Amino acid sequence: MLRILKMNFFFIVFISFIFTNKTAYSATPQVVMECPGLKSFNNWCAGTYEENESNSCIMISAPISEKGDPPYKSRGQAVATIYHMPSEGNNGVVYITTGYNYKKDTIVTLKIDKNQDHEFNVLEGDSAFSDDENVDKKIIFEMKKGNKMKVIGFSSRGTKTTDIYSLVGFSAAYTYISNLCNVKN
């Protein structure tokens, strides 16, 4: 069985709440997010959630740039999520939500700066992830040192989307959630 998709209804509602209530402003080219109920780390929000005496630690970010080819008419919120669920044995899981359903039998590609491409081969609805914790570890390692992450996917209608995420604040947010969940950083 896949090691992920323990991301339950809460995470979907929680992430939707955060990003429908976020404020982004740019006095400079850098976007700063406000994170109701969470701690802000420039472009990343981080915090914990407890359900059934199980603690989860998450960090989330919205893209700083979204592009569709051909241009899309409507799209839900895109979000990059990293989470720890120590009680489930899931630490450092990278999870992408795109705001549209992925086209079946396609691959979602992540690229941090000029590093190699990483492929997410598990697609469920509007979510993409890897079923290999070593891939997640490598992605997180690159994200800690990187500036930008590009995510490319294809919608069920065939639209190619390219989302760019800023990694400003990523390392601090990751250290924060790792400390909250007592996970080795």
Short key terms for the protein model shown above:
185 residues, alpha+beta, seven-stranded antiparallel β-sheet, five-stranded antiparallel β-sheet, 38% strand, disordered N terminus
Write the layout of secondary structure elements.
Blueprint: H1 9-20, E1 24-25, E2 32-33, E3 39-41, E4 44-51, E5 54-61, E6 65-69, E7 79-85, E8 90-97, E9 108-112, E10 118-120, E11 122-124, E12 127-129, H2 133-145, E13 148-154, E14 160-166, H3 170-180
Antiparallel strand pairs: 1-2, 3-4, 4-5, 5-7, 6-14, 7-8, 8-12, 9-10, 9-13, 11-12, 13-14
Describe this structure in words.
- With 185 residues, the protein is α+β, with helices and mostly antiparallel strands.
- It is built from three helices and 14 strands.
- The strands form three sheets. The chain has a seven-stranded antiparallel β-sheet, with helices on one face. It has a five-stranded antiparallel β-sheet with strand order 6-14-13-9-10.
- A hairpin with a 2-residue loop joins β4 and β5.
- It is globular.
- 39% of the residues are buried.
- The N terminus is likely disordered.
